[in-house]
Amino acid sequence: MQLTVLAAAFLATLIGIYCLAPLTHKLGLIDKPDERKQHDGVIPLVGGIVIYAVMVSTALLVIPVSIELLYFLLAAGLVVFTGALDDRFNISFKLRLVVQTIAALIIIYGVGDRLTSFGDLLGFGVIELGYLSVPLTLLGFLSVINAFNMLDGLDGLAGGVSLVAFVGLFFATGSQVSDTTTLIICLFIGALFAYQMFNLHFFPRHLPKVFLGDAGSTLLGFVICAFVIRFSQEGRAIIQPVFALWLVAIPLMDMLVTFFRRLRHRQSPFHPDLTHVHHIFMRAGFTRHATLAVIMLASSLLAVIGFMLEKAAAPAWVSFALIVLLTLLYAQMIGHAWKLAKWIKRQTIFHGLLENK
């Protein structure tokens, strides 16, 4: 059944994007190049909408319908709808945060999933959240949703990092979760493989190039966050809460460092700029494909390290200390981005990955 759902989601996404992409011009769901977006021509913002439609249709057809599933689909739908509105009309980030908060509350009170503890992060015993449970769950959702949204600035990046997270969840949870959950994870894996074919333009003569749009990047962050919360907390605990940080390490580290840098420069944390990790690699002279390969390799490596720590039953505080050290190292590297870029350019090993223009 898992392979069937994966294949069905792959084909449905393939067909859905191919059929819907030509209609996006009439709907205004297109991305035009500007000073921050240096792609060629207008690109349909249809990837996320199709993935959500495939998720809903496939889920309702092959998964037993429950009230939890309906709440989950409703919450995800709110995120996608708001993202699509932002793609079309460029709405206020405050409105987006309000709707994302409502979607998270549906998961908290409708589905019944929330953060209740952080585990033994500091080595002094389990950190119970108590009255902070709901606000910290909301903060978690908003952080992961917008981390993936901010990462979506390079072809294949948000989709690829999400794919790593879903594959990591699949192997980490294994046969310990319900068939419903496993099938939804397989559904996203299949859909993302299909989307990547369009986004990376594997067959330019036959497939149109498309983007996820805010509808897609926020959907992926929302679903990944919902799953790691569900299976890291008491009652359904299969993975340690800290394992989630390894699955989404690149988006979270990039978002945290970017937020603090903007605040230090007295800018809005949501003010767009060209200082994300993929921008820095490209300024160093890396091609887009090389930048994608490097970041994907790093994301996969971090997920594997987290998975190995999880399977080895390493203490949560050890895993957390490692991820904190990596985040500090990342912040230092970004803080000295120009020096790092010059150093990279001088290294003979990187010459094949640099543009020869």
Topology (SSEs and partners):
Layout: H1 2-20, H2 24-27, E1 30-31, E2 43-44, H3 47-62, H4 67-89, H5 93-111, H6 133-151, H7 157-173, H8 179-199, H9 213-230, H10 243-247, H11 249-264, H12 277-283, H13 288-311, H14 316-335, H15 337-346
Antiparallel strand pairs: 1-2
Helix pairs in contact: 1-3, 1-8, 3-4, 3-8, 3-9, 4-5, 4-9, 5-6, 6-9, 6-11, 7-8, 7-9, 7-13, 11-14, 12-13
Please, could you describe this protein's structure?
The protein is mostly helical. The protein has 15 helices and 2 strands. The chain has a two-stranded antiparallel sheet with strand order 1-2. The protein is globular.
Give keywords.
15 helices; mainly alpha; globular; 2 strands; 357 residues
Query: Shape from CA axes?
Result: globular
| Structural Rg | 20 Å
- Strand coverage percent: under 5%
Low-confidence stretches: none
Averaging pLDDT over every residue, what do you get?
86
Please give a quick description of this structure.
This protein is mainly alpha-helical and 357 residues long. It contains 15 helices and two strands.
